[in-house]
Amino acid sequence: MYDFAYHKPASVADAVKLLGADGEAKPLAGGQTLIPTLKQRLARPTAVVDLGAIKDLAGISVAGGKVTIGAMTKHADVAASADVKKALPALAALAGGIGDPAVRHRGTIGGSIANNDPAADYPAACLALGATIKTNKREIAADDFFRGMFETALDAGELIVSVSFPVAEKAAYMKFDQPASRYALVGVFVAKTAGGVRVAVTGAAASVFRWKEAEAALSKSFAAASLDGVKASASGLNSDIHGSAEYRAHLIGVMAKRAVAAA
Amino acid sequence: MPKVSLTVNGRTVSAEVEGRTLLVQLLREKLGLTGTHVGCDTSQCGACVVHIDGKSVKSCTVLAVATDGANVTTIEGLANGNELHPMQAAFKEHHGLQCGFCTPGMVMSAVDLAKRNSNPSEHEVREWLEGNICRCTGYHNIVKAVQAGAKAMAGAKAAAD
Ligand SMILES: Cc1cc2nc3c(=O)[nH]c(=O)nc-3n(C[C@H](O)[C@H](O)[C@H](O)COP(=O)(O)OP(=O)(O)OC[C@H]3O[C@@H](n4cnc5c(N)ncnc54)[C@H](O)[C@@H]3O)c2cc1C
Ligand code: FES
Ligand code: FES
Q1: A34 CA from centroid of ligand 1 (Å)
Q2: Rounded to the nearest whole angstrom, what is the distance from the C-alpha of residue A33 to the centroid of ligand 1?
Q3: B137 in helix, strand or coil?
């Protein structure tokens, strides 16, 4: 790992200032992705801006039919939150299935979403629930946020402050773990929301995406049987030593049905 | 170089570190606490697990400077003089180790679990240890040791109360 300057600002404004002053500086949240990346020298920031001392970035609130989670809230805290378990149990369960306990004690929702790993779990929840990502300067709908492999709508130096999830009528997430990494080989989040049925798929392609055919079928009747005969296309899906594109396409159907049954 | 002050196993320590110095490097190289191991250095094996403010974390994936003011416990902080901690004693009793390389991380993870759940099922133990890899034992005796250790910890706590 190359060395870097280290800053630990106490406010979002100070963090934004530090990032704005140095285009090669990077924010640090839980470090569960950034530190391994630095070790592999895949990134070489001049400075690291640790968000860990900014009090108002962590915390969970439920109000007005929305669950709002601060960017620095750890996966373990979302998983254990009585409020999240009550309002959106699928989201608490998703957080509790990320990685392992040590990763969940450090990793944060903001870091996961900003990173947009093609196999990460939170992006599926954001897209299926129609979340809103709040930054230091604007609000971005999940539909506009996840742009491609490790790519988001965030500008350079823009910080995620919180994520708001509308409470769903029914929701569930089913993930087929890649057993070595515990990331999703395929994960499917289904949600019956006020705005209709939404189905988001992670792990299968370059970035999380909505499976529109399944949404149409489930809109007629929200039951696993509605997905009989609805097949995800393998075209454009990931193929690697863990599974071919055809296998992933098949898993999408299986995980979607399981999620509907569990919702 | 940034300076960091923290509590390690009940002792206040200060050190000058680089921004990039990892917590595990501070522990092993500056403080001589070599009980915490580095197995993979890619955040996957759990040999480096320590507690920060009571929670298990991978010390190879935490910057030392970020732990300023924190309370860190390593494997060296568990035993009471020559008397093994109940979880250490359970690993010995149930043959929960062979080469011992993964053991410090296993024990630290197990102690964190036992504090939350004094009677974990086999499934709960296996799920909790997902981030701790052992290349020797096949895990079977580790699971037995953790279950016994958790009960012994609860018993020791009840006796103390
Ligand atoms: C062994 C292991 C297993 C894992 N398994 C899973 C899994 O099963 N599922 C899963 O989804 N993830 C998994 N992860 C990833 C984990 O969830 C990470 O915690 C997460 O992806 C990144 O969050 P972080 O807080 O650690 O962010 P960091 O690593 O600190 O940062 C990640 C990136 O986001 C940027 N960033 C951080 N916070 C902000 C912010 N507020 N605003 C703007 N940019 C920001 C950083 O600059 C960096 O580029 C795993 C990680 C490990 C090490
Ligand atoms: S050395 Fe830290 S997880 Fe392997
Ligand atoms: S005892 Fe050898 S790695 Fe676990």
Answers
A1: 7
A2: 5
A3: coil
CA B142 to ligand 3 center in whole angstroms = 10
Whole-model pTM: value is 0.97
Q: Which of B22, B26, B28, B42 to mutate to test the pocket of ligand 2 (most atoms within 8 A of CB)?
A: B42
The CATH fold of domain A5-50: 3.30.43
What class has domain B86-160? Answer: mainly alpha
Segments making up each domain of chain B, as ranges: 3-77, 86-160
Residues A57, B40: Cα–Cα separation, whole Å: 31
Nearest CA to ligand 3 atom 4: B134
CATH 3.30.465.10 fits A58-262, yes or no: yes
- Domain map (residue ranges) of chain A: 5-50, 58-262
Q: What is the pLDDT along chain A (263 residues), one digit of tens a residue?
A: 999 999 999 999 999 999 999 999 999 999 999 999 999 999 999 999 999 999 999 999 999 999 999 999 999 999 999 999 999 999 999 999 999 999 999 999 999 999 999 999 999 999 999 999 999 999 999 999 999 999 999 999 999 999 999 999 999 999 999 988 889 999 999 999 998 999 999 999 999 999 999 999 999 999 999 999 999 999 999 999 999 999 999 999 999 999 999 99
Domain B3-77: CATH superfamily, name plus number? Beta-grasp domain (3.10.20.30)
CB spacing of A99 vs B131 below 8 angstroms? yes
ipTM: 0.97
Q: CA of A97: which chain B residue's CA is closest?
A: B127
3-state helix, strand, coil in chain A (%, to 5): 35, 25, 35
Going by C-beta distance under 8 Å and a sequence separation of 6 or more, which residues neighbour residue A32? A99, A103, A106, A107, A111, B43, B61
Indicate if ligand 2 lies below 6 Å from the C-beta of B133: no
Tell me the two tokens of residue A150: 């490790």
